[in-house]
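Researcher: Here's a chain I'd like modeled. Treat it as a single chain, no partners, no ligands.
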Amino acid sequence: MGRPRVILASQDPRAAVRLRAAFDPRRYRVEHAFDATEALLRAEVVLAHAVVLQADALDQALRQRCAKRSRRVALVLVSESERVATVAAKLGAGFVRQPFEPAQLCSCVQALIARAARHRQPPAPGAPEARRDGGARILLLLADSVPRSVMAAVLEKELDVACESAGDVDLAIQALAAPVACLIADPQALLDHDRGVDLTERLSQRGVSLVPIAPEHYADAAAAGQAAWDIIPRLREILDELRPEEDLSSTPAPDSEHPRSGRKKA
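Model: Modeled as a single isolated chain. Structure tokens:
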């Protein structure tokens, strides 16, 4: 697809310079917008691959625009604000906390571009409906948005399921309002949170499996990607157990179960 087009929006000139420094011009086409509204509008006109917004707050109208675009365009919010982090999690967008390392922002954008590309791709003619449309759902609980985005992208691609991510325990509890196949989380992080026990009890009551990961598994983007591959076999087992068993009552038995001795030769 050539170089991905990334639109950056920040009203702080110094912040805009730091945002641009995260992207190698040989690999990305970077454009600047005055504010978030202009960036989202421009993304629709020029078919951008990613929008990076530096903001300390998002009003309701802007949240609605972000929600509309986040499934088709990689959306990353950059801020020091915990409120913006919560908004990003609810929108399914990436979140990078300031101050940040350029490689951290770039890795987050890369992972979300890959995820958005899969959502844009239409199914092949005659292909079965994708399982992520109403099929099994995996819940991923990680505070750091970069490893979370990387793991979600790998799991969605390899397992063909929806992988919903939550940045904290409260958001994970909200996500349990809909059925989930399993929760991927650090058990110690659950114990350290005041509502972690509540979450584990809800999982137990619903028979939802907890797939554990350790801190070293999400220390950075590379570790998160490897961790996703490592837990895929276990996730396949869980998903296979949830699939309805195939009805074999009307399936003809193989020839080996029906002796041919009764057949007469001409």
